[in-house]
Amino acid sequence: MKKLIYILFGLCLFSSCQDDENKAYVPEKVDLSTDEIDVYFQENFQDKYRCAIRWKWVDRYVDISYIVAPAMRKVVVPTGEMLRRFWIEPFILESKASADFIRDHFPPEIVLVGSELRNADGTRTLGYADAGVRITLTELNYFDLSRKDWVIQQLHTIHHEFSHIIHQKYNLPVGFNKVTENNYTGRAWQDMYVHAQQELGAAGVQSPTQHQVDSVARNRAIMKGMLTPYGTSTEFEDFAELVSIYLLTDPVDFETTYLQNDLSRPFLNEGKTWIDKKLTLVKEYYQSNFSIDLEHLREIILQRLNQSNMK
What we know:
alpha/beta; Collagenase (Catalytic Domain); 2 domains; seven-stranded mixed sheet; 11 helices; globular; LP_HExxH_w_TonB
């Protein structure tokens, strides 16, 4: 199971995926329903992409260790429309090859959960994918298309987990794992947030904000050639973070933050060179294997996000 988790550590919030045992996927037989919501998902997801949307509460779709709330009826169709507008349709518009790609690799199940998934250790699970066949989205009862941060959070989960589905089937781009092979940290990626707090404290910042901690921790990841602290854990999370963040970040912001030499902070520049090398490999991987132009796909996604009056 792949999980995208946001972990609260002091003032720090960070994300991760965890692996569980993969199991063979057996599609569940479900009788056709006349409920208008079921009809919507049947027509727009099941018939077109062979994907079952699980929105009604069923215990077996979520680990019993979580305390959760089901998705409210009023948010499930808007969630489906969000997925269509910002995930599916950009692939369709990018090219015919891209449209075929998302249809052929679409996850068989998507589970919609209304609340966060709170863990016993204080972490909160934002979403996860099971063995490349089921993606679970959470916090949908807070649905608000006017909040860009909330929409980006959901889309990041989708693109991150969808990237895992791709590399699990086709492997990573050749040479990707060699660029920064000595810089992956395993479980120690979490320490970057601790060190960020310590660094800020040593600089006289007694009560650092979430943004300050995240910024320092991100710089530590960039120095290693990754985009986020969690991306330093393994080459697979590095790949998924690179694809998802690239697709959802303004080109100028991405260039400035992750690629462009920084005269005021030269300690970041070697890491940025490594990121640039891996990004080139990723773009070539999608273009040569699937005829997908990631830059064009990003342009379509961001255009739609920018046209949606989000704040």
